[in-house]
Amino acid sequence: MALEALYQLHERLQREPAYGIAPPGRSYQRITFVVVIETDGCLVSIEDARLPSERRPEPRRVLVLGATKPSGSGLNPCFLWDAPGYLLGWDARSERAARARQTFDELRQRHLEVEASVGVPDYSAVCRFLERWRPERAGEFRVLEELATGFGVFQIRGEPAYVHDDPGVVGPAHRRRSRPDEDVVGSQRVHR
Questions:
Q1: Bridge partners, 51 (sequence order)
Q2: Per the domain annotation, does 179 fall within a domain?
Q3: Confidence bin at 92 (pLDDT 50/70/90)
């Protein structure tokens, strides 16, 4: 009886935006930039997604796929969102450039691995972007220096929603939580 009441309360609070409770398999993240691409994957721009504020712009709270940013020192890319190192292979600190390239390569590989199972044109556009993108180009986008501490997402030019909001992407995202050669224990990945 008490458990049922708690479940109902959680369901009710989840429907109220003011409480900020994300549904299972999702989380709210602080998004500072958007990678805007064409439907063929060509880059249009990297845009500041922050909200204006009296003192300084604030990150936008966006509901993304995945419970949280995986912790640990391993390579832990998120699905269709992440930090500039993962999404673009860029880090403001030159001593971390090699690590940023590694994280980008891992994110690219994991996204390309599941493209056929996702089967959504906007997701394929992201995959084409990831195949073509060269991390050394990130230096052309001065806006990244200001946004380096936040996360980014993908958006198709002219579309009001982000790519991860497409209902066709949600199911495959939840199925890809672990790769075939891994077991997921808590938030840690254990390679077999």
A1: 58
A2: yes
A3: confident
